[in-house]
Amino acid sequence: MNRVHIKTYGCQMNERDSEAVAAMLRARGYRIVESEDDCDVLLLNTCSVRDAAEQKAIGKAGYALSRKRHSPDFVLGILGCMAQNRGAELLDRLPDVDLIVGTQKFHRVPDYLDNLRAARDSGVPLGEAIVDTAEEAGSQNTIRDHVEGPERKVCAFVSIQQGCNMDCAFCIVPTTRGDERSRPMDDIVRECEEVVSRGAREVTLLGQIVTSYGRRDYPHTGGVSPFVQLLERVHAIPGLERIRFTSPHPRGFRQDLADAFGRLPKLGEHVHLPVQSGSDRILRAMKRPYTRDRYLEIVASLRAARPSLAFSTDIIVGFPGETDEDFEDTRRLCEAVDYDMAYIFKYSVRTGTPAATMPGQVPAEVREERNRVLLEELGRGSLRRSQALVGTVQEVLVEGADKTGERFMGRTRGNRVTVLEAAPRLVGALVPVEVTRASVSTLYGSLVAAGLQSPLGAASL
Question: What's the start-to-end Cα distance of the chain, in Å?
Answer without folding.
Answer: 49
